[in-house]
Amino acid sequence: MNITRRKFVKLAGTAGLLFSFGKVQAASNEKILIAYYSRTGEEYGLGNITKGNTAIVAEIIAQKTGGDLFEIKPVTPYPDSYEECKKIASREKATKARPPFVGSVDISGYDTIFIGYPIWYGDAPQIVYTFLEGSDFSGKKIVPFCTHGGSGLSSTDQTISLTCPNAKILQGFEIRGATAQNNFAQTETRVVEHLKKLGLI
Q1: Residue 126 and residue 168: Cα distance in Å, rounded?
Q2: For labelling alongside 33, which of 22, 48, 57, 107 has CA 20 to 30 A away?
């Protein structure tokens, strides 16, 4: 059976698998993981999307650094409906819910871990905190990155610092969801600029 790389990426994400773009050699000897949550379906101002905004950014980071990707995929998927998803996201934030995700990843062998997410109600989705609270990030370097509709990082880098007090939080970056979805070249340029600042490429 022939399978394209795009289909493989989609299948791997569906299964909560870890995989590597390892053809690229990072400028440093850092072992890099890119863990991210990304949503498809109806998106405000973008219509129905089949590739999540944050997933697009995460895959660029992996391609440029040779890092491993891990999708934080909910056990119970969020609705495709934008309005229905908003209701659940609001309730989860209010109750500090910790939704479970599919699969697992051992972070012990990684030096730098990128954490990616969309901004929901001025915060990362609560499932991202399920991931962060489920492993020991002591001594790790964390790079937050997000996609958004106008809020930027929205202090999520500070919240992640509080959640993982024994990790070193490096400068994060943000990209508008519409840019990630509709302008790959600009998105790639923005990612490369930040990776260079971090000394990773």
Answers
A1: 21
A2: 48
Q: What is the pTM of this model?
A: 0.87
Q: Which two tokens stand for residue 139?
A: 């001594």
CA atoms 134, 135, 138, 140: torsion sign: negative
Contact criterion met (CB below 8 Å) for 93 and 65: no
d(CA 192, CA 36): 18
Mean pLDDT by 10 residues, the chain (201 residues): 44 50 58 98 94 98 97 97 97 98 97 98 97 98 97 96 98 97 98 96 90
Give the single-character DSSP code of 55. Answer: H
Q: What is the pLDDT of residue 27?
A: 57
Three-state secondary structure call for residue 107 = coil
What is the greatest pairwise CA distance in the chain? 47
- C-alpha 146/C-alpha 43 separation (Å) is 15
Query: Where in the chain does DSSP place strands (E)?
Result: 18-20, 32-36, 41-43, 47-49, 68-71, 112-118, 141-148, 168-169, 173-176
> Six-digit token pair at 94?
């209010």
Contact present, 156 and 146 (Cβ < 8 Å) = yes
Q: What is the spatial distance between Cα 120 and Cα 149, in angstroms, rounded to a whole number?
A: 10
**Strand-pair category, 68-71 with 18-20:** antiparallel
CATH class for the region spanning 5-197: alpha beta
pLDDT, residue 16, reads 52
Name the residue among 133, 138, 125 with its Cα closest to residue 165: 138
